[in-house]
């Protein structure tokens, strides 16, 4: 009997040991953060979560300024981009482990995070006056405004190699047919007319999303009707056109070979070296091109995705990603100070000295410098002519999660555009039901 | 005697606690959340709505088809090739230690690493596989980019990766067969083939069954290799049930993806249990 109890004790002891080990694991990090925030002599350290695909040169430079001026340190934490990153953000918000400051898309993705609950309302802050209304709209929920722009505005459309255009004597197309004609000539010259980089599936969406100017300029109500379950991609010809264009390029043989094995990185190289003429992409790519091909970056121009009317040729604009402050942050004041400095004239000067814009800034009184990228200057022409519209995801909270797979299917010619559009409508329906949007 | 029995239960306690906390509890709870609209912090009971929506998923049929193809193909190949290798590796081969470790090696590599490596090797024009095929005059296919081929390419890689475990289990089964039987068949005038069919195969049945079950269950819920190699693409052509569920989870549809997992659990159970019963009935006692 005595033997039994001793062995039982050992078993319990072993179990306790396991529990202890588990407890230690989480205990370590706690004691770390207490050390830094407990002592008032020490600088405050703000944690900052950002995806690993955004170039952070500008943000880091501003963070250094802030450390010098306000004794606030910034610790950048990296997460993956795309849907995987969304997941991490949502999980960390739900488990109350979000960093003090967070970088995230504005628009529909941001609104899906339930900002009222998780982020600090900045609408009362004086520095919000510097932010443009277009941006504020993309981070507003109800009465609250939950973020400041973390980068410049950018456009989605066609990046093209100016040298190839000059070589072949081509002109920037103003209609889709002109674009196809250009592609034919480029193909004859032995170059790839349009890059399809479907290995990174997200890149396949740009032709559809970048077509939204053509929808918006004809039917500005489409976004509202789309949100209210009154308009569908499959049954609205101007919206369906985006899917048709994806297939059109495949039918004409204008894409490169090996679409699904070509990555975003491959595409950048093909465009910069002039192996290919067009890449339907966001202008944020300029930063990546500049990193790898600094001598070629100004050979790259931009034009909006054309439609049928040559007089109505515009560009689709993406609202910048946002910086939001965690509502439960212990360092909320310091985080607000961080944002205030970031959007201030001084902060933006530092930012721009370290990072070139890929479009106009979403702040008042911040002008683009003269040495902006060629493609950005091209984009500004649309902006100055008033021929721009925001992408659908900034006008509607709905963006179906499977869009990138569907655009790959349509782009490869696996399904016809009507079927792709119908699939996407059903994808959106599921999301609307999850978000409990009225009318679904 | 009695205290001995209780004593053994005490030893089970730590493992049981961990099992209950990390496996039983989440399983039971997931049955509940499958019926809710769930944002991780809040939930709302919506009955069978999630299950209805899950079955409406456009790529679900592709997912089912691919899952079954994948599970049965990989399980079959692992058993057949595994038996072949195990027979060779239990013979008097000189380099058998070396070959054994070579075959087992892929098991030690992380699945994601295997997936990334093979997606590079399977690149249609620059990948090593097609370059080598090109040298001998064969125009290799686009392994992962061809929608009709992608799932089979992934299945082959899964076989390459999982073969080591299958072979090791089968070797263990074959080694446990007493030599007396082989001596008996020799005396009766049987050749090597007779020995294989009448002794090795039936008597390594328990090992074969284990391999079939493990490979089948593993195949039905495979996810990581497909995700690393094709992401379910091109389009939805190599989606499995598990990758569909994962995409729903990524989209933030937590209730829906939990419902999908409950279904996957039931499907695996419904398929595997009868097969398990069937295989066990045919086992021969040593």
Automatic annotation (TrEMBL), chain A:
This protein's UniProt keywords: Signal, Transport
Signal peptide boundaries: 1-22
Similarity-based family: Belongs to the bacterial solute-binding protein 1 family.
Protein name: Raffinose/stachyose/melibiose transport system substrate-binding protein
Keyword Transferase: no
PANTHER family: ARABINOSE-BINDING PROTEIN-RELATED, OSMOPROTECTIVE COMPOUNDS-BINDING PROTEIN GGTB
InterPro entries, alphabetized: Bact_solute-bd_prot1, SBP
Keyword Electron transport part of the UniProt annotation: no
From TrEMBL, chain B:
Membrane-protein topology: Multi-pass membrane protein
Source organism superkingdom: Bacteria
Localization (cell): Cell membrane
Entry-linked CDD domains: TM_PBP2
Pfam families linked: BPD_transp_1 (PF00528)
Residue stretches in coiled coil: none
Main localization of the protein described in the UniProt heading: membrane
CC terms in the record's Gene Ontology section: plasma membrane
InterPro entries documented for this protein: ABC_transporter_permease (IPR051393), MetI-like (IPR000515), MetI-like_sf (IPR035906)
Transmembrane segment boundaries: 7-35, 68-90, 102-122, 149-174, 253-276
ABC transmembrane type-1 domain mapped to chain residues: 64-275
GO terms (BP aspect): transmembrane transport
Keywords on record: Cell membrane, Membrane, Transmembrane, Transmembrane helix, Transport
Membership in a protein family: Belongs to the binding-protein-dependent transport system permease family.
Name this protein carries in UniProt: Raffinose/stachyose/melibiose transport system permease protein
Organism: Gracilibacillus halotolerans
Organism placement in taxonomy: Bacteria, Bacillati, Bacillota, Bacilli, Bacillales
């Amino acid at each position: 009997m005595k033997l039994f109890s001793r062995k039982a004790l050992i078993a319990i002891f072993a179990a306790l040991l396991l529990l202890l080990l588990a407890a230690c694991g989480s205990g370590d990090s706690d004691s770390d953060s207490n050390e830094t925030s407990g002592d008032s002599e020490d600088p405050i350290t703000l944690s900052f979560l950002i995806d690993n695909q955004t170039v952070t040169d500008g943000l880091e430079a501003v963070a250094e300024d802030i450390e010098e001026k306000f004794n606030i340190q910034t610790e950048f934490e990296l997460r993956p981009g795309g849907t995987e990153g969304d997941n991490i953000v949502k999980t960390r918000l739900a488990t109350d482990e979000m960093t003090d400051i967070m970088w995230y898309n504005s628009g529909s993705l941001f609104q899906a995070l339930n900002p009222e609950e998780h982020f600090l309302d900045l609408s009362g802050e004086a520095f919000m006056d510097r932010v443009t209304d277009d941006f504020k709209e993309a981070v507003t929920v109800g009465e609250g405004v939950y973020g400041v722009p973390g980068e410049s505005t950018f456009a989605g459309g066609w990046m093209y190699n100016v040298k190839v255009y000059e070589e072949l004597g081509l002109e920037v197309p103003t209609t889709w047919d002109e674009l196809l004609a250009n592609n034919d000539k480029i193909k004859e010259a032995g170059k790839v007319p349009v890059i399809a980089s479907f290995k990174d599936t997200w890149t396949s969406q740009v032709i559809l999303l970048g077509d939204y100017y053509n929808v918006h300029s004809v039917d500005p109500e489409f976004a509202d009707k789309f949100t209210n379950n009154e308009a569908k991609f499959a049954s609205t010809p101007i919206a369906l056109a985006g899917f048709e264009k994806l297939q059109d390029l495949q039918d004409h043989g204008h894409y490169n070979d090996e679409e699904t094995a070509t990555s975003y990185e491959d595409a950048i190289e093909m465009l910069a070296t002039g192996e290919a003429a067009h890449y339907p992409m966001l202008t944020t790519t300029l930063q990546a091109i500049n990193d790898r091909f600094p001598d070629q970056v100004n050979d790259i121009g931009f034009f909006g995705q054309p439609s049928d009317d040559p007089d109505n040729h515009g560009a689709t604009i993406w609202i910048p990603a946002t910086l939001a402050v965690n509502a439960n942050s212990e360092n909320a004041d310091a985080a607000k100070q961080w944002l205030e400095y970031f959007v201030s004239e001084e902060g933006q000067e530092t930012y721009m000295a370290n990072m070139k814009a890929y479009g106009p800034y979403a702040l008042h009184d911040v002008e683009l410098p003269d040495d902006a990228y060629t493609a950005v200057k091209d984009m500004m022409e649309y902006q100055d002519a008033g021929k721009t519209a925001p992408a659908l995801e900034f006008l509607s909270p709905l963006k179906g999660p499977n869009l990138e797979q569907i655009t790959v299917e349509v782009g490869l010619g696996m399904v016809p555009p009507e079927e792709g559009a119908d699939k996407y409508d059903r994808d959106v329906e599921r999301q609307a039901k999850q978000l409990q949007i009225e009318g679904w | 005697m009695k205290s001995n029995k209780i004593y053994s239960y005490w030893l089970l306690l730590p493992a049981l606690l961990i099992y209950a906390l990390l496996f039983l509890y989440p399983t039971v709870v997931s049955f509940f959340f499958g019926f809710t609209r769930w944002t991780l912090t809040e939930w709302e009971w919506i009955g069978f709505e999630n299950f209805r929506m899950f079955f409406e998923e456009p790529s679900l049929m592709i997912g089912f088809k691919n899952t079954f193809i994948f599970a049965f193909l990989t399980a079959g190949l692992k058993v057949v090739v595994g038996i072949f290798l195990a027979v060779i590796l239990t013979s008097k081969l000189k380099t058998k230690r070396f070959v054994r470790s070579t075959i087992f090696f892929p098991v030690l590599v992380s699945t994601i690493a295997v997936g990334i490596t093979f997606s590079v090797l399977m690149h249609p024009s620059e990948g090593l596989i097609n370059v080598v095929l090109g040298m001998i005059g064969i125009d290799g296919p686009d392994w992962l980019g061809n929608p009709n081929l992608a799932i089979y390419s992934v299945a082959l890689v899964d076989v390459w990766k999982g073969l080591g475990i299958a072979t090791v289990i089968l070797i263990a089964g074959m080694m446990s067969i007493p030599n007396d039987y082989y001596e008996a068949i020799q005396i009766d005038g049987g050749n090597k083939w007779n020995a294989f069919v009448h002794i090795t195969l039936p008597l390594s049945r328990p090992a074969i069954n284990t391999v079939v079950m493990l490979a089948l269950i593993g195949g039905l819920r495979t996810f990581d290799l497909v995700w690393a190699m094709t992401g379910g693409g091109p389009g939805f052509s190599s989606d499995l049930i598990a990758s569909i569920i994962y995409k729903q989870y990524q989209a933030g549809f937590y209730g829906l993806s939990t419902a999908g997992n409950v279904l996957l659990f039931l499907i695996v159970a419904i398929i595997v249990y009868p097969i398990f019963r069937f295989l066990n009935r045919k086992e021969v006692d040593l």
